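User: Let's play a game. I give you a shape written as tokens, and you guess the letters that built it. Ready? Here's round one.
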């Protein structure tokens, strides 16, 4: 007993664990499904549109099914027949129990609640039930479109992504529905509405024996090839007599042999709903494939089938032609009756026959109410239907081609899957479906004399539809309230301060509540006053938004109490700022979009050259000038010398030009970086560098000096500045640069900038006094050693970049070279040496003689004591006005004034891996080689003392070394598009590279020459008119074909991928 009880306890515990784990998994699954549903939930189904008609959703490729279902659903006779099936014929009641779970044991136990559940009696009856549900929803449920999945599941149709033929579907669907109705009160509904019959009669011409065969139909198939309209097709099928002769002779049962015969086909019984299937798809035996007939084929709105029916004649009457419209009368000899021989009984028979004929004629009149349209080809397409909804519009009779649209009501609708649209001009719409790719495929006609039907729903269906509509209304109300409800966060001004261009929160503030955004501002204020006991009469409510800079205030909403919250484009979560409308924390606050701050990060260097950053918000309507003024105060850089540069993500710099435009208009956005640099001139060489100079006087005392110089400061002027500071003659002064390891490098006195001489920021210099003359000082005579005074008039820009004319008196020895004079005057006038022009004024004649830089002394150039010089820019307007007086022999003209383009390749070291870079620059022919070396040194970053230039000969590929001298580049043989190789003098790679230079790999010679091409292209910009245009352009011989294609594409406007 103990063992048994122990086993039972163990099993109970195991069962409890299994049940608990299963219950947890079930709860998790339900929760996960709910989360997924809410994540993809886009609201309840939309209500019906204004036309009060509903569509059917496309399950994949079920457009053919949707078009047919809409036709059947809008057939009142079929719909009413299905609705009249009583509940007891379809459903049965089952008892079912809702099982619960014991919370103590975890075992299932029967629940105390029992209820009845309706289930279909048989599997087959699910089909009419689903038809009732779908037709009822399409008719009465307040929803824009419905799914047909329940119906397709009941039919076991799962190929929803494969399209079928709608004509085949029509026969199959009605046959399945008819079978499913067997045993119900409406089992004859399909037969009475849609079944008709035709009779085939074959008459033997020998013995007049007639053989009849009757066939039932759901639809009449009509050929369209070589047919004009529906009437022509019906005439060919049911009026023409077919002769069976020769090979087609008929085997007569009476004659017992093949005989000639005639065959006639007539319509014996017409259905209430007549379906005509147009044979648009045919098989082409020539091409061995199916094709769609797109020719014009007309169909009427009214159809009379009386001429195509079988005539039921009395046995004593002779047969007559069914197409003959004449009626028997007294005057008609063919009638077989005479006035005098007609008895009273015969008159009654005739009247009864006439009444029967009148009824038969009315049964043959049909009105079109649905057109199923196919768009596409034999391989696939799309179906939709034009349907005339009963009771919506007045009936329209007559052929489409011969009638005009006169109905003011819109009774025809286009049922296209889930969308239903009214057809304004249905006559025009029908005519457009006579032919073409999108044409009529099935026609549905309703007998005209059918009585009007009063629909009555079954009890269960009416109950389910009311319940569904109530559920949809509640769901829409909940969703509507949820969508329009916004969460409002109320912020108080006492918890904020103004800092860094925006409002910053000082305390955790904010009181949230929810409100419908369709409420008025008055309701909003009352809600705030009631919840938080505020008096909002003296406060303003502004919409606030959190930006990268902080909080910013936008539109004020508290002005008009009658306004609605949603009028201010409020949705989701919104913040409202409560303040006095003017100041926060003692600062006047600007509101609105124009004052919206843009968060920028500005980098600059402080007094000790340490990098600093400032993060701040700037109003988007602030001008560039105002930003320069504000940044100038932080950085202590004069506005005239301040330059702001935008730092792109790629690392490139773009100068932010000064102007009156706004920072937002210039393209500045949040999180952008700016760099503030000191820029006295536009040239980057004006950046200052700090030099520490230690002077060793003859007594051996050390006197350190720290001074800033611009990078383009002349080296000779630095020598002169140190000479004046310490009273040492420039001839006896020597400057040495002290390296990091202590090595010393002597600076040569030459015409270059201190940057070109190799001096960098915070370099250490030693000034050494030598008693003997430097070896580089030339031997002087007594005449050359004299000091003369020159009067220089500065016509160029001054330190402030404005034209400034002032006098400079310069004491200088006569043995100084012209190159040195140009450098000294450049330092005094702040004019770059390559842009400086010096002119000597002749005392008597007043003529101007242009001085040219060279290796001659000023004495040899003709300068004497108290001579007057004019200094200015080469293109200075002041000098241009006086150039008329200059002698033509002294002006730089002709070949020397022309510019040439040089391609400079240089070997730059990146770690230990060399790579070759190319620079293309233009130079004037009169530029001296010394100036060329300085320019190349600045472009390549190679010190001018270590720079080695070689010219590549075009055809042989030889390298010719260029020396630093006073000749011009034109005199040494440099021409347009020549190639130079720049490198270090002691660079081993450069020496190794000289041997590998081949004429095929150097872009010089014929390849580098520019050629002129005449391009003729066809311009079609005018639409239909073609015009030939010609473009003449010059290109270099070494241009790649891909670059040529891109260039021609830009010139002609043609796409490069279509250009040939």
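Assistant: Ready! My guess for every position:
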């Amino acid at each position: 007993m103990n063992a048994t009880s122990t086993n039972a306890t163990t099993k109970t515990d195991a069962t409890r664990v299994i049940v608990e784990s299963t219950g947890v998994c079930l709860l998790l699954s339900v929760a996960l499904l709910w989360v997924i549903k809410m994540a993809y939930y886009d609201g309840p189904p939309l209500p019906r549109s204004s036309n009060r008609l509903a569509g059917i959703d496309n399950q994949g490729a079920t457009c053919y099914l949707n078009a047919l279902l809409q036709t059947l659903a809008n057939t009142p006779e079929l719909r009413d027949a299905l609705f009249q099936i009583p509940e007891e014929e379809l459903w049965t009641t089952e008892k079912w129990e809702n099982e619960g779970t014991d919370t103590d044991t975890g075992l299932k136990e029967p629940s105390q609640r029992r209820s009845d559940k309706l289930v279909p009696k048989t599997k087959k009856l699910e089909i009419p039930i689903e038809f009732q549900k779908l037709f009822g929803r399409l008719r009465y449920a307040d929803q824009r479109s419905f799914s047909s999945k329940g119906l397709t599941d009941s039919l076991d149709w799962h190929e929803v992504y494969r399209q079928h033929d709608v004509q085949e579907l029509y026969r199959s669907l009605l046959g399945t529905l008819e079978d499913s109705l067997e045993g119900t009160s409406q089992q004859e509904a399909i037969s009475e509405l849609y079944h008709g019959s035709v009779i085939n009669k074959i008459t033997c011409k020998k013995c007049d024996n007639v053989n009849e065969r009757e066939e039932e139909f759901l639809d009449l198939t009509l050929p369209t090839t070589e047919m004009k309209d529906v009437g022509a097709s019906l005439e060919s099928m049911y009026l023409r007599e077919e002769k069976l002769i020769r090979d087609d002779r008929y085997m007569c049962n009476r004659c017992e042999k093949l005989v000639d015969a005639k065959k006639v086909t007539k319509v014996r019984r017409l259905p209430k709903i007549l379906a005509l299937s147009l044979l648009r798809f045919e098989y082409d035996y020539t091409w061995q494939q199916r094709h769609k007939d797109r020719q014009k084929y007309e169909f009427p709105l009214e159809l009379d089938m009386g001429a195509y029916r079988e005539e039921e004649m009395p046995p004593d009457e002779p047969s007559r032609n069914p197409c003959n419209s004449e009626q028997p009368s007294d005057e008609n000899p063919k009638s077989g009756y005479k006035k005098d021989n007609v008895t009273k009984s015969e008159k009654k028979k005739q009247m009864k026959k006439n009444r029967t004929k009148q009824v038969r004629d009315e049964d043959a009149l049909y009105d079109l109410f649905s057109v199923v349209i196919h768009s596409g080809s034999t391989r696939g397409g799309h179906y939709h239907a034009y349907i005339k909804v009963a009771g919506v519009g007045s009936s329209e009779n007559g052929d489409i081609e011969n009638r005009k649209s006169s109905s003011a009501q819109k009774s025809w609708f286009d049922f296209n899957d889930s969308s239903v649209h009214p057809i304004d001009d249905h006559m025009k719409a029908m005519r457009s479906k006579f032919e073409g790719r999108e044409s009529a495929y099935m026609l549905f006609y309703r007998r005209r004399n059918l009585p009007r039907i009063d629909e009555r729903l079954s009890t269960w269906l009416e109950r389910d539809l009311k319940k569904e509509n109530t559920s949809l209304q509640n769901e829409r109300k909940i969703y509507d309230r949820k969508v329009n409800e916004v969460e409002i966060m109320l912020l108080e001004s006492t918890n904020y301060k103004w800092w860094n261009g925006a409002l910053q929160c000082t305390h955790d503030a904010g009181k949230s509540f929810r409100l419908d955004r369709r409420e008025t501002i008055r309701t909003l204020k009352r809600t705030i006053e009631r919840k938080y006991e505020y008096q909002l009469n003296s406060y303003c409510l502004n919409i606030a938004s959190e930006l990268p800079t902080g909080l910013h205030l936008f539109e004020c909403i508290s002005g008009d109490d009658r306004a609605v919250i949603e009028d201010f484009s409020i949705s989701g979560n919104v913040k409202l700022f409560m303040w006095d409308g003017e100041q926060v924390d003692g600062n006047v606050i600007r509101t609105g979009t124009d004052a919206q701050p843009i968060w920028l990060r500005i980098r600059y260097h402080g007094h000790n050259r340490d990098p600093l950053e400032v993060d701040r918000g700037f109003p988007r309507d602030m001008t560039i000038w105002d930003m320069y003024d504000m940044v100038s105060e932080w950085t202590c850089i004069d506005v005239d010398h301040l330059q702001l540069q935008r730092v792109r993500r790629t690392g490139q710099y773009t100068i932010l030009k000064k102007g009156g435009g706004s920072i937002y208009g210039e393209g500045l956005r949040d999180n952008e970086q700016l760099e503030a640099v000191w820029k006295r001139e536009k040239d980057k060489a004006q950046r200052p560098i700090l030099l520490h100079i230690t002077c060793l006087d003859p007594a051996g005392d050390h006197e350190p000096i720290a001074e800033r110089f611009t990078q383009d400061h002349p080296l000779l002027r630095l020598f002169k500045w140190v000479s004046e500071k310490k009273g040492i003659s420039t001839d006896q002064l020597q400057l040495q640069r002290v390296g990091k390891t202590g090595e010393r490098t002597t600076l040569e006195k030459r015409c270059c900038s201190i940057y070109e001489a190799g001096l960098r920021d915070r370099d250490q210099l030693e000034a050494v006094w030598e008693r003997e003359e430097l070896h580089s000082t030339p031997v002087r005579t007594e005449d050359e050693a004299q000091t003369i005074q020159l009067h220089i008039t500065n016509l160029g820009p001054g330190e402030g970049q404005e034209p400034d004319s002032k006098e400079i008196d310069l004491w200088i020895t006569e043995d100084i070279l012209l190159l040195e004079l140009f450098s000294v005057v450049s330092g005094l006038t702040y004019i770059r040496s390559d842009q400086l022009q010096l002119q000597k004024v002749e005392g008597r004649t007043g003529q101007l003689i242009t001085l040219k830089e060279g290796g001659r002394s000023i004495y040899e150039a003709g300068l004497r004591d108290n001579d007057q010089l004019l200094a200015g820019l080469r293109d200075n307007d002041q000098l241009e006005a006086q150039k008329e007086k200059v002698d033509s022999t002294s002006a730089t003209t002709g070949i020397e004034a022309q510019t040439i383009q040089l391609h400079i390749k240089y070997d730059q070291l990146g770690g230990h891996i060399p790579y070759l870079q190319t620079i293309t620059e233009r130079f004037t022919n009169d530029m001296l080689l010394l100036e060329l070396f300085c320019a190349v040194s600045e472009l390549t970053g190679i010190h001018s003392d270590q720079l080695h230039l070689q010219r590549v000969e075009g055809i042989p590929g030889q390298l010719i070394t260029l020396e630093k001298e006073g000749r011009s580049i034109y005199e040494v043989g440099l021409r347009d598009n020549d190639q130079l190789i720049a490198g270090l003098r002691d660079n081993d790679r450069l020496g190794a590279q000289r041997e590998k230079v081949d004429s095929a790999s150097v872009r010089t010679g014929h390849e580098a020459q520019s050629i002129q091409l005449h391009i003729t292209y066809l311009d079609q910009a005018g639409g239909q008119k073609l015009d030939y245009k010609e473009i003449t352009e010059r290109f270099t011989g070494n241009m790649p074909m891909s670059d040529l294609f891109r260039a021609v594409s830009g010139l002609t406007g043609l796409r490069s991928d279509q250009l040939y």
